[in-house]
């Protein structure tokens, strides 16, 4: 074999071992979305900015209908686990989880589960804790318990505010694609008749976390995490009340008033190549859930009038990690050189 042939073979081997290995390891991507409202209650309004006791069905209002529904789904490299609860009172969907190959680790029920994915733990996946790490995983978890109005179909006796929680995690180690979607929608819907004229206060404490990460220098990586929260009240005699907490503090709505709104519960963040890196919402600390208290007042509601209140919440994550074209191109050139070398050896 001549010196030129040896050089081509050396380049081909080095490229296969070096760039090929990089292509196998690939860049990593992570998207985390967690949102927990606990406790959540609808309360009597005593005066501007001051809330009284939780509403009690049959005392302050008459609840004519109450419904909750929820869904959770997780997808990883084409495999999906999903559950939908179309109607119910209090729903707790077990984590819908995909990952870890044959053992399905670290999903719940696997031989080596990750404790952060345990039902209703809503643990943080973050670069602060060494994520993403093998194996890749996609998981969605959901929980709704209690009622923001006491004594509704046996819920909240004694008065127990609601708990509404959702998480969506997509963590890719070594490439692939995944997504998680939790429509905790709490879609909780109340249809009620006021027994006295007055306002209602919506109160809750929130824990929230968003993070998106892709490896720096990789152009074909993408991660996105988002959550949303809204409260909408409609009735024949009011302008629609629509509160979507956005972190802008006290303010007047088109209908109603916001008293406390410390940070946004309607947000989307993303990280993509080649810049990559870890992205968080403004004011969030890496690896730590933000906490705060929220409050808004409805407009004045009239006695003996029927109103409908919808509360919705979602958490979503998605990420992709694919081979770099440049890496594959170099590998192809190297293999072509190796082929030329071998043909020359055959004909010489």
Provide a descriptive summary of the structure in words.
- The structure is a single chain.
- This protein has 348 residues and is mainly beta.
- It has helices at 3-25, 325-347; strands spanning 29-47, 50-54, 61-76, 79-88, 96-99, 137-145, 162-172, 176-194, 200-214, 221-234, 241-243, 251-252, 257-260, 267-272, 277-279, 290-297, 306-321.
- A hairpin with a 6-residue loop joins strand 10 and strand 11.
Distance between the termini: 9 Å
Helix content: 10-25%
Task: Describe the sheet with the most strands.
Answer: 10 strands, antiparallel
Structure classification: mainly beta
Tally of DSSP β-strands: 17
Net shape: elongated
Share of β-strand residues: over 45%
Q: How many helices?
A: 2
- Write the H/E string, N to C: HEEEEEEEEEEEEEEEEEH
Global mean pLDDT? 82
Task: From the alpha carbons, calculate the radius of gyration and give it in angstroms.
Answer: 26 Å
Poorly predicted tracts of residues: 2-25, 326-348
Summarize the structure.
With 348 residues, the chain is mainly β. The chain has 2 helices and 17 strands. The chain has helices spanning 3-25, 325-347, and strands spanning 29-47, 50-54, 61-76, 79-88, 96-99, 137-145, 162-172, 176-194, 200-214, 221-234, 241-243, 251-252, 257-260, 267-272, 277-279, 290-297, 306-321.
């Amino acid at each position: 074999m001549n010196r030129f042939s040896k050089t081509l073979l050396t380049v081909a081997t080095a490229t296969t071992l070096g760039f090929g290995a990089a292509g196998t390891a690939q860049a990593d991507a992570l998207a985390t979305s967690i949102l927990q409202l606990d406790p959540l209650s609808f309360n009597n309004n005593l005066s501007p900015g001051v809330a009284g006791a939780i509403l009690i069905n049959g005392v302050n209002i008459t609840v004519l209908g109450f419904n909750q529904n929820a869904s959770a789904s997780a997808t990883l490299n084409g495999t999906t686990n999903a559950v939908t609860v179309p109607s119910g009172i209090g729903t707790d969907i077990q984590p819908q989880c995909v990952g870890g190959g044959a053992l399905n680790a670290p999903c719940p029920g696997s031989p080596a589960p990750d404790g952060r994915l345990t039902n209703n733990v809503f643990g943080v996946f973050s670069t602060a804790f060494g994520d993403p790490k093998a194996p890749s995983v996609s998981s969605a978890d959901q929980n709704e318990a209690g009622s923001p109005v006491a004594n509704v179909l046996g819920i909240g006796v004694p008065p127990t505010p609601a708990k509404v929680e959702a998480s969506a995690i997509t963590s890719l180690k070594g490439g692939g694609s995944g997504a998680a979607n939790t429509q905790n929608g709490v879609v909780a819907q109340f249809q009620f008749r006021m027994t006295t004229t007055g306002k209602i206060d919506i109160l809750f404490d929130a824990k929230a976390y968003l993070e998106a990460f892709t490896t720096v220098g990789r152009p074909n990586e993408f991660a996105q995490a988002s959550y949303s929260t809204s409260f909408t009240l409609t009735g024949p005699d009011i302008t629609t009340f629509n509160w979507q907490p956005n972190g802008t503090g006290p303010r007047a709505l088109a209908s109603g008033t916001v008293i406390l709104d410390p940070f946004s519960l309607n947000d989307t963040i993303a990280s993509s190549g080649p810049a990559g890196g870890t992205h968080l919402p403004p004011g969030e600390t890496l690896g730590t859930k933000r906490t705060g208290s929220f409050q808004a007042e409805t407009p004045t509601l009239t006695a003996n009038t029927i109103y409908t209140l919808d509360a919705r919440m979602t958490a979503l994550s998605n990420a992709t990690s694919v081979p770099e074209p440049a890496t594959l191109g170099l590998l192809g050139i190297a293999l072509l050189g190796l082929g030329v070398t071998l043909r020359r050896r055959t004909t010489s």
